[in-house]
């Protein structure tokens, strides 16, 4: 009892409560916070509008199924910014907004691999071009330091397993998110519960393993074919995808760990964890807004299809043959 009194005397009771309701936040906003929330909301809405305009451009200018893939990939930053805006205004919904963003990005990881293959003409053309050629697999995030790994010849089976490796994250992440919500409604799932008996300590590391496993196939494909895609600005496009990954996954995890350790101080009505989530949402809105603008200029244009050197040589040979036939006829 004495320890409880000491605890109550040193810690503000608000630091031990749930995140405040949206109406409570609105009532306590001062002039600076009103401007901050307004600017961040404007950034989020602008990101969404830019994305919608880009979707119209892609739908009109690009063929199917490439346009579907590009619409999915470009939606990563605007969706995360929009969900972060909801989480900023409604702190108690942060778990759901984060799960929605992560589930969407899990699909984007698979779509990036699909885009890399489609840019080279699709699976059949890709296999015609690279079948039997050695692919290096010592790439991040799994085996970047394993230089002794042998090169693996590309085949239809290998391409199939690479696609499965990226697709499993999109499926299992969604399934595990639904399981987490069901456990949360029953009081068995709490992100702040790091005890060995808690569900979070088992589910979150498993999701981390799934994430790394899905990123590896995408990195393998990109590292082996990026030299053919320079004319499509694929390197900066891939860099934007990697940046969204780092900011939405790694940055958020670091902030949450600091909040759980108490490094981020409590500021009533926000507990330490709620304040960490709030800072994370605000940072994500600004970062995703910038990424949305960069992606808009990268994707709001048409690129010439890739022509391999073999195709050029074949066309030149055919042209020479036709010229010889014409000359012979004359």
From TrEMBL:
The residues that cross the membrane are 36-59, 71-92, 104-127, 160-185, 205-226, 238-259, 279-299
Superkingdom to which the source organism belongs: Eukaryota
Pfam families for the chain? Solute_trans_a (PF03619)
Which SMART domains is this protein grouped with?
A: Solute_trans_a
GO CC annotation: membrane
InterPro entries, sorted? Ostalpha/TMEM184C
List locations, semicolon-separated. Membrane
Q: Which UniProt keywords apply?
A: Membrane, Transmembrane, Transmembrane helix
Q: Which PANTHER family match?
A: ORGANIC SOLUTE TRANSPORTER-RELATED
Q: What is this protein called?
A: Organic solute transporter subunit alpha
List the source organism: Takifugu bimaculatus
